[in-house]
Amino acid sequence: MRNPCIWCCLVLLTLVVCDSCLHEERKHLMDICDAFLWPAGNPPDWSSRDCCRWERVTCSSITGRVTALDLDAAYPSWYGLLNCSMFLPFRELQNLSLGNAGIAGCMPGAGFEVWSNLRQLEILDLSENELNDSSIMPLVGLASLRSLFLGGNAIKNDFIVQRLSKMKLDILDLSWNGIFGNISRGMASHLKFL
């Protein structure tokens, strides 16, 4: 560039933009905070302006967008029904942890199938919930997933296991479920951990 002043301004602008979360995502994080019941009644401290510095939130250092949310042990306030559409604004979300959250299913019209729009979601932890065979079936459509943790739920049907094992997962955790039947080695040969 010919003018060093313009170059310096561009660098400073980039640093300012990339050092904090997007206003739109901050607003949606606050909605999530209000939509969950937190352990011991203590929601996370999400009072600072920069949501990238909030506990349970991780952002990209390049784009400032939310890349990971840790909502373990936070219960959906809709009687155990999760509104999956509330996570759709986080277009760069890669890791979502909703373990031990008392999730029994999803709200009508806002089930797991809407997460197919989260094209970067690679790690999903739904362990230690109350999900059953029919409630997890839409997870089969999440093509970007590489790790899926479903241990400690109410999954019983080996047909569901067969469908899940056909996904391009590296890790599939189904421990502590009531699954009966056998899983053939060939069916799960691409998994690094089952």
UniProtKB/TrEMBL annotation:
UniProt cross-references to InterPro entries, sorted A to Z: Leu-rich_rpt, LRR_dom_sf, LRR_N_plant-typ
Record's keyword terms, sorted: Leucine-rich repeat, Repeat, Signal
Signal peptide location: 1-20
Sequence ranges assigned to domain Leucine-rich repeat-containing N-terminal plant-type in this UniProt record: 23-60
Protein name in the entry: Leucine-rich repeat-containing N-terminal plant-type domain-containing protein
Native source species: Oryza glumipatula
Phylogenetic lineage: Eukaryota, Viridiplantae, Streptophyta, Embryophyta, Tracheophyta
